[in-house]
Amino acid sequence: MSLYIVSTPIGNLEDITVRAINTLKNVETILAEDTRKTKILLDRYDIREKKLIPYFSGNEKRILNSVINMLKEGKEIALVSEAGTPLISDPGYLLVKRAIEENIKIFSIPGVTAFTTLLPVSGFPVSSFYFAGFLSNKKIKKRNQLADLKTLNTVIVLYESVHRIEDTINAINDVFGSETEIVIGRELTKKYEEIIRGKVGNIKINFEKKGEFCIIINFNK
């Protein structure tokens, strides 16, 4: 009985390791945050006849016991997120925590994540940084979170959705100041990859575009 935490591409389907492909071929069941996206990946690498079970934040608690029981029965199960590395701002924490408690073997199959894709090309000193993930969608709380992050005096990494990116850019401007340098990545590794650099007060984004954003703030004072 083994649980495999498998990183998958964030856009370009060629960004997957040989080990990840072999793992997905060998397991009996795949827990997928988005089964449609996972099916596209599986078809690309001719991975057939797998039991795909939806596993997302809305049903994680409800199906946790059944997944653990499957593992205890000897099943080999892989967990994949919609894209990137599971548990990094994606579901999976409850499953891994419970698997540890039940002495179930867990293997991490490493791969790409959005922030590790953007950090090396940011032009910022990234030997150390703080990953904050998604901030609150409430305006005041978001600004309070940013104020706390500002005290760290380091490079800060955020994720944001297309629906909240405009307010988040404005919040960074309010808290860190308009002269603060940031880098924003959208559609990373995909055909229409876009990387925007500049001072936050001068950043221009087409907020009508789709996709999630990765934001890096250079506040290494």
Structure description:
The chain is built from 7 helices and 10 strands. With 221 residues, it is of the alpha/beta class. The chain has a 5-stranded parallel sheet, with helices on both faces. Strands 6-7-10-8-9 form a 5-stranded mixed sheet. Helix 3 runs parallel beside helix 4 (93-101) and helix 6 crosses helix 7. It is elongated, with a radius of gyration of 19 Å. The model has no long low-confidence stretch (mean pLDDT 95).
Shape: elongated
Measured as a percent range, the helix fraction is 25-40%
Radius of gyration: 19 Å
Strand content: 15-25%
Give helix and strand order, one letter per element, not per position: EHEHEHEHEHEHEHEEE
Largest sheet: 5 strands, parallel
Helix/strand class: alpha/beta
CATH architecture of the largest domain: 3-Layer(aba) Sandwich
CATH topology of the largest domain: Cobalt-precorrin-4 Transmethylase, domain 1
Which helices and strands appear, and what pairs or packs with what?
Layout: E1 2-6, H1 18-26, E2 29-32, H2 35-44, E3 51-54, H3 60-72, E4 76-80, H4 93-101, E5 105-109, H5 114-118, E6 129-134, H6 139-150, E7 155-160, H7 165-176, E8 181-186, E9 194-199, E10 213-218
Parallel strand pairs: 1-4, 1-5, 2-3, 2-4, 6-7
Antiparallel strand pairs: 7-10, 8-9, 8-10
Give a quick summary of the entry.
The protein is built from seven helices and ten strands.
What features would you highlight for this structure?
alpha/beta; Methyltransferase, Cobalt-precorrin-4 Transmethylase, Domain 2; 7 helices; 221 residues; Cobalt-precorrin-4 Transmethylase, domain 1
